[in-house]
UniProtKB/TrEMBL annotation:
Co-factor requirement: FAD
Alphabetized InterPro entries for the sequence: FAD-bd, FAD/NAD-bd_sf, Ubi_Hdrlase_CS, UbiH/COQ6, UbiH/COQ6_monooxygenase
A Pfam short name: FAD_binding_3
GO biological process: ubiquinone biosynthetic process
Domain (FAD-binding) ranges: 6-341
Source organism per UniProt: Croceibacterium soli
Protein name (Swiss-Prot/TrEMBL): Ubiquinone biosynthesis protein UbiH
Biological pathway: Cofactor biosynthesis; ubiquinone biosynthesis
Length: 404
């Protein structure tokens, strides 16, 4: 039995579900298909990761009605400190009083809970959780996903939001450039003696960046931060095998006493780091969003924000086209989305890849050169402002949903 909607969103993660909610705000209906169990995704301890939500992405959440659900659960990022191994010559990014914060930190679990709750309340979203796709069709007049239970879900446009290993992208034969950094990100929650004061630290070491991201204080005023520690793949097993006490000692050493005594909060997790970027982000009646289109190093915390820029642009293109009488799968609309997002996402991907390689060069001379450059940025307000606007996601041609 067929059930027709305008969009068929394959993947109901942070980007896919945000897309469904943003589309619904414009009156666009969707099927959202995801093989995962929502109860597992939102279980305590399932995913210890946290995400930095940029100013532009927060504008998107505000414009689709999510901000009220999230406001009290996020920690504002008051400033960002960037340093080469805690040596002299760091950059401090701090917005003016009228600009508010540089973004907000949320646990991924918090974001999922808010998104899933909003999706359940939205009649324009039909959510198919724990669903296995056994067939995909993209024809002249529409698209179809066939589920293992025999259901056939029809729509005008298919959207791949399944992440880095998107089977829909592979099925469409879209070529991809990718490489492995041979690094692994170790994720952990920390409690610490001194307050973080809303400062996000990005400490660069030759083995990779060491990021400390501010979280809201816990019960009893316990100071908390999220750690993203990049290590060489060959060292990852040894670091993960350390006892909690030994791991905390290694973390303290790399923090140079910034937060005082440190303890672990919850289990550690890790994932390999790689780069990928597709040759194109559209095909016949198909659009790619988020990590299905581009996967970047977490060095600047822009991965999710890049996907949310895809969401804003695609929804704006579709809504404007539908007002003119075009259907969502129209080739003209997909071409406009490709032109809008293809170059921007590629430039961000290149920038993060370049930073990863630049700060990975060991030795005193490369460190001195990097710190000289960072000092120049610190002393040049227009250049510093540009980097800060990039971090806030407020550069380039912004979709309406991402504007204030």
């Amino acid at each position: 039995m067929a059930d027709k909607r305008e969009l068929l969103i394959l993947g109901g993660g942070l980007v896919g579900m945000t897309l469904a909610l943003a589309a619904a705000r414009k009156g666009i209906s969707s099927h959202v298909v995801d093989r995962a169990d929502p109860a597992e995704l939102t279980a305590v301890g399932f995913d210890g990761r946290a995400s930095a939500i940029s100013t532009a992405s927060w504008n998107l959440f505000t414009n689709i009605g999510l901000a009220e659900r999230l406001e009290e659960q996020g920690c504002p990022i008051a400033s960002i400190a960037v340093t080469d191994g805690m040596k002299p010559g760091r950059i401090d990014f701090q917005p003016g009083p009228a600009e508010g914060s540089l973004g907000r930190m949320f646990s991924n679990r918090t974001l999922r809970l808010a998104l899933f709750e909003a999706a359940r309340e939205q009649p324009l979203i039909t959510w198919h959780a724990r669903a296995q796709i056994v067939g995909r069709e993209r024809g002249e007049h529409g698209v179809v996903a066939e589920l293992a239970d025999g259901s056939r879900l029809e729509a005008s446009l298919m959207i791949a939001a399944e992440g880095r290993n998107s089977p829909t992208r592979e099925d469409a034969g879209i070529s991809i450039a990718k490489w492995d950094y041979r690094h692994r990100a170790i994720i952990a929650g920390l409690t610490h003696e001194k307050p973080h004061d809303g400062v996000a630290w990005e400490i660069f070491y030759p083995a990779g960046p060491f990021a400390l991201l501010p979280l809201l204080d816990g019960p009893g005023g316990v100071h908390r931060s999220a750690l993203v520690w990049t290590v060489d793949e060959k060292d990852a097993a040894g670091v993960l095998a350390l006892s909690d006490r030994a791991f905390a000692a290694e973390v303290e050493k790399r923090m140079h006493g910034v937060f005082g005594a440190v303890a672990l909060e919850g289990p550690r997790s890790s994932y390999p780091l790689g780069f990928h970027h597709t040759a194109k982000i559209t095909s016949h009646r198909l659009a790619l969003v988020g990590d299905a289109a581009h996967g970047i190093h977490p060095i600047a915390g822009q991965g999710l924000n890049l996907g949310l820029r895809d969401v804003g642009a695609l929804v704006e293109v579709l809504a404007e086209g539908m007002r003119l009488g075009l259907e969502p799968g129209d080739a003209q609309l997909l071409s406009r989305y490709e032109q809008w997002r293809g170059l921007d996402s590629f430039m961000v991907a290149l920038a993060t890849d370049g930073l990863t390689r630049l700060f990975g060069i060991p030795g005193r001379l490369p460190s001195a050169v990097r710190r000289f450059g960072m000092g120049m940025v610190q002393r040049t307000p227009p250049l510093k402002r540009w980097f800060m606007d990039e971090a806030r996601g407020m550069t380039g041609t912004l979709p309406g949903l991402l504007q204030g």
